[in-house]
């Protein structure tokens, strides 16, 4: 059994005092929490939650693809008016673990834990929520799933019924499919936060969000190390065809550069400015894979986005 303390992550992202420790139990099926705070996705999500908490009333919240439930714990600590929290994951083995983790820190909130793909658990339970947070994999790969691996980075063939060539080519189908499904599971003026790796041209993200019937707002943009590079980079490299290339960066050189320009927090810049600053360190997925395979000490980085998608009437 592995126990991680995410108290420091909550403190760093929410800039407020939190009674420590905050324990999260992990199993071999939950997406692993990394020791360095900003190597994880969920602290960036906490920053996004905090921004939205100032702008809207969130009484009901759903985390889709919650893994160990770390993202949902942040929601419990952020949204002052929260009454219901729904946590879902496609992997039935992780849902009870997430439920146990979230319940420990959700004294005044109803926790509903459901297994299923994308928004199906919400739809099947006729549940509507004010805010959905999604953190889904991008890479099509049946083999690893068939052989019982975690489903953190990969999805199986035919998982999403969206016919959008741009989303398919740029490995954004899971996000487009979630946005389309989420429309019927959101309350009036409900929102989705899509957590998406910024490995693709920014305007494509705009188009995907608009295509699904939402308005686009960039909530948080950050820079983080590419975790699980041995799992993830081959998938992106294989998808680099027909003019499609992905944006990765030489992580240590880029981090030093940002640091020397006084950019100490990994999430304070907007996407355009961050990508401009990072441009000299940019490499394709193919180059990133080659670099990583030549020496595994070469850390690869990527931009991440927390996008606020607001349902249009
Ligand atoms: C990258 S992990 C993120 C886990 C967690 N949100 C975090 O930040 O630690 C992606 C999660 O999505 C789940 N997942 C994969 N495909 C899914 C789908 N189609 N519907 C719902 N969850 C899915 C995986 O099982 C995994 O727990």
Low-confidence stretches: none
The main sheet comes to: 9 strands, mixed
Number of DSSP-assigned strands: 13
Which band does the percent of strand residues land in?
A: 15-25%
Helical content band? 25-40%
Instruction: Give the CATH H-level superfamily.
Output: Vaccinia Virus protein VP39
Instruction: Write the CATH fold name.
Output: Rossmann fold
Number of helices: 13
- Give helix and strand order, one letter per element, not per position: EHEHEHEHEHEEHEHHEHEHEHHEHE
What small molecules does the structure contain?
A: S-adenosylmethionine
- What integer value in Å does the Rg equal? 18 Å
Q: Give the integer mean of the pLDDT values.
A: 93
Structural category is: alpha/beta
CATH top level?
Alpha Beta
* Overall geometry: globular
CATH architecture: 3-Layer(aba) Sandwich
What does this protein structure show overall?
- The protein is an alpha/beta fold.
- The protein has a single domain, classed as Vaccinia Virus protein VP39 (Rossmann fold, 3-Layer(aba) Sandwich), CATH 3.40.50.150.
- It has 13 helices and 13 strands.
- Helix 6 links the parallel strand 7 and strand 8.
- Helix 1 packs across helix 2, helix 2 packs parallel to helix 3 and helix 10 runs antiparallel to helix 13.
């Amino acid at each position: 059994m592995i126990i991680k303390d995410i108290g420091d992550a909550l403190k760093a992202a929410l800039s407020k005092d939190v009674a420590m420790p905050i324990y999260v139990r992990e199993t071999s099926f939950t997406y692993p929490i990394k020791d360095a705070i900003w190597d994880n996705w969920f602290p960036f999500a906490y920053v996004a939650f905090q921004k939205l908490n100032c702008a809207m009333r969130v009484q009901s919240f759903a985390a889709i693809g919650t893994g160990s439930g770390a993202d949902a714990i942040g929601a419990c600590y952020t949204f002052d008016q929260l009454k219901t929290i729904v946590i879902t994951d496609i992997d039935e083995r992780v849902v009870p673990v997430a439920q146990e983790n979230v319940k420990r820190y959700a004294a005044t909130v109803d926790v509903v834990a459901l297994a299923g793909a994308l928004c199906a658990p919400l739809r099947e339970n006729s549940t509507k929520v004010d805010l959905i947070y999604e953190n889904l994999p991008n890479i099509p790969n049946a083999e690893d799933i068939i052989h019982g691996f975690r489903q953190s980075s990969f999805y199986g063939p035919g998982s999403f019924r969206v016919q959008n060539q741009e989303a398919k080519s740029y490995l954004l189908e899971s996000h487009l499919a979630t946005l389309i499904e989420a429309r019927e599971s959101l309350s009036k003026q409900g929102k989705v936060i899509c957590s998406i790796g910024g490995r693709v041209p920014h305007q494509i993200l705009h188009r995907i969000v608009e295509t699904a019937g939402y308005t686009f707002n960039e909530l948080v943009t950050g820079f983080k190390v590419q975790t699980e590079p041995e799992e993830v980079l081959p998938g992106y490299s294989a998808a680099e065809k027909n003019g499609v290339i992905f944006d990765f960066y030489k992580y240590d050189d880029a981090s030093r550069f940002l640091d020397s320009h006084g950019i100490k927090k990994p999430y304070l810049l907007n996407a355009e400015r961050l990508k401009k600053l990072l441009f000299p360190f940019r490499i394709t997925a193919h180059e990133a894979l080659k670099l990583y395979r030549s020496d595994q000490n070469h850390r690869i980085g990527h931009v991440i986005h927390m996008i606020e998608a607001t349902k249009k009437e």
